[in-house]
Amino acid sequence: MIIIMKQDATDEQISQVVNRVKEEGLAVQMNRGNEQPIVGLVGDTRKIQDVAFQRYDGVEEIVRITNTYKLTSREFHPQDTVVDVNGVKIGDGSFVTMAGPCSIEGLDQIRETARMAKAGGAKILRGGAFKPRTSPYAFQGLEEEGLKYIRQAADEFDMQVITEVMDEAHIDMVAHYSDILQIGARNMQNFRLLEAVGKTGMPIGLKRGISGTINEWLNAAEYIAVQNNNQIIFIERGIRTYETATRNTFDLSAVPLIKKLSHFPIIVDPSHGTGVWDLVPPMARAGVAAGADGMIVEIHPDPVNAWSDGPQSLNEKTYLKMMDEVHILEKAMKEIHELKNL
Ligand code: PEP
Ligand code: MN
Residue ranges of the DAHP synthase ferredoxin-like domain (predicted)? Predict the structure, then answer.
């Protein structure tokens, strides 16, 4: 349930409503970025009667949100949320690229990849130090050593870091070296992990689960948002279907759909979305055209010898060409938005 206050509601009127919500045993999250302040009721609102609030001065409307992801929904927050990663804005209408290797393999490798990434215009460096691998015998990541390398490389090239955290026990360590915590597809519904990363207050990149429905994904974001964390970035990385010609089926319709249902930004991951390097540039272009707020893409100085996900990684040449195309489309999208706003 949300309570939409009148545009000219006073602070005093808002506090009276907020106090009453608290007396009912519920928590509150406020949205003051909107023209009309919105009071979001957090918790089980089934027992609350609308009339209890209708008599308060300053109340315009009481809206029951029927879906279970209230704070994540557009109803609660009609305007777009912009995630701010130390000044790099995601969701402000620009297209932000995060690029880097699947795994951090060593200092030289991540420095060289950071150089490539930056040359193409990426502002955020990706790279896994804790890798969720199908086989327990596959390379599992360099862990803290890798985190140190990616931080050093990102600082050298004035970039931000996104890296995956797989386990609650490692949150403090991963947070220390990074700027965005990535929740991998396999952990989209690891609810304790979602709560714990939410509590850090850091930006969270939330990958869509391998078989995650849109509704499950939105509810996963709610686990983070309810911890008073509104710095959430959805990452569409493809879902498992009956198709085996690509690694996953890249669900581009998720981009406009998430934008309709939620206020948080969404970026695309055409690398895991296809699993095949030469399908990555066309799907990246499609991501820009679909209205994504950015992308995360795997690149490597020598994909053939990459320790993980080489087949879907772009080398310097193919990456730079893709980025030239992406920059052209970004400009075209700006023109399209201007037309829309006329
Ligand atoms: C990754 O980003 O390298 C990764 C493991 O992604 P996902 O969780 O989407 O499979
Ligand atoms: Mn990967």
Answer: 1-66
